[in-house]
Amino acid sequence: MSTELSKARELFDSGDPQGAMRTLRLAADTLAPADCAPLVGRLAEGAGFDDLVEAAAALAARPDRPDALYDYGYACIERGVSALAVPALREALRLALAPRRGGLFGRAPKPTYTPQQILLELAVALEDEQRHAAAVELLTEHDGLLADWPGRYLVVHNALMAGRLDTAGRVFAALGEPSETWRPAADRVRRTLRRSGLAAPADLRDLRGWHFTLTGGLLTTLSPYGFAAGMTGRWAYYQDGFDSCRRGLDRLGTVLEATGRRPASVALLPDRGSRALGLAAAGLLGLPAAPYRPGTPATLVVAYDLNECDPAVLAALRDRADGEVLFEHATCWTDPPAVSADVSTLLVQHNVAPWEPSMRIGDAGEPERTPADERSAEELAEEIRAAEPEPDEGDGETPADPDELLAAFAARVRGGWLGGPRDRVRSAGPVPSSKFA
To answer: pLDDT digits over 372-411, tens only?
Structure first.
């Protein structure tokens, strides 16, 4: 038994199933799927995932069957552990492509799944794990099994997410006409390729350029810490402040000025954080504010964190009204919201809002917990408006990002901004950043 599998079992037996699963996920490519299956089945049983329990038992019993490997991999994807699906589906594909050996009376069992089905599911698993370059290589290697839709479309999509614009453009240009089912995906690719031409990302550290290319949104600030060490402008953990909220609204004003956008009003979302930020934006921009109503043209919709918003509101925001601009202050890059904002202040994995309970270092040098700020949205808005933000100099390793640079970028890409639906983009794209496991 491998060291990592032994460690995972010890964690499970000690009452730490999360630690056990985390260990399995990190070591998945080095572990035989059938060896992991019994422990995965026990973990699935504790979570109430009957489909994965059944698939894990079947794989443990018949590790040489492509169908058992496929069913296990499929169940892993469905239950959010695609890392475990990858090696199982790789082995299933290898076995499915191998010459069939004769079984009893010279007949081998007929497989339930075709090599093409297994290949596409493996590509999905790699995509879920944001291993986009590996997905491109896999699909390209087995091009003979692919149809244009969805097979070669998946090549295009993963090439875009891997930052391989030349490959994406070349393969997309050769695709046949999509069916109605795949037409929205084709339109999405066209918009993405057009945005890439406007943004012209300099390299795989150009976070603002790639963020616009993939999501259509304008990122207004970069984290000034750890850029060279692997954060590349994103935050893993951020303790937000009223001064940061004010700076985000100031940078929003820079974008609106550079793109020539003049909203007629501010739309207030119902959660307290968004309402506070929206009222502050209305005061700073000199605009009237009213509760958000879907379909209202020429509005600036202000959200603090879209993941905290009502799902019905997010569904309404996917299709934009004429002249509508969606602004989000703190955008989660590891769990992107259901819609992509048109403007984001910052990209963060875990954010603590200024009004939430937080930890700080007290006068005695010891950490202490501060209570929540229970003031009304109106009072919080006044606090944001009164703040006097100063750019954080950080560690000195992040490239300079003055207002003029942001304005120049926004002006350059405005022809491809605010176009099409606000699709969710699940991948962080080709710019790597460190994050919590």
So the answer is: 999 999 999 999 999 999 888 899 889 999 999 999 999 9
Pairing of strands 218-219, 325-332: unpaired
What domains can be seen in the chain, in order of their start residue? 3-100+110-192 (1.25.40.10), 201-416 (3.40.50)
206 within 8 A of 233, measured Cβ to Cβ? no
Spell out the residues 6+ positions from residue 45 whose beta carbon is closer than 8 angstroms to its own: 53
CA dihedral 119, 121, 123, 126 (to 10 degrees): -130
Rounded Cα distance between 382 and 376, Å, is: 10
Work out the pLDDT band at 124, boundaries 50, 70, 90: very high
Q: Rounded distance, CA 66 to CA 95, Å?
A: 6
User: Each residue of 407-433: b (16+ CB within 10 Å) or e?
Assistant: bebbeebbebbbebbbbebebbbbbeb
Q: What is the pTM of this model?
A: 0.93
Beta carbons within 8 Å of 6's beta carbon, 6+ residues apart: none
Looking at 129-241, list the stretches that DSSP marks H as alpha helix, in order from N- to C-terminal side: 132-141, 153-161, 165-173, 183-199, 207-215
Contacts of 395 (CB under 8 A, 6+ apart): 224, 225, 226, 227
Q: What is the CA radius of gyration of the chain?
A: 25
Place of tokens 């229970």: 374
Residue with tokens 């614009």: 165
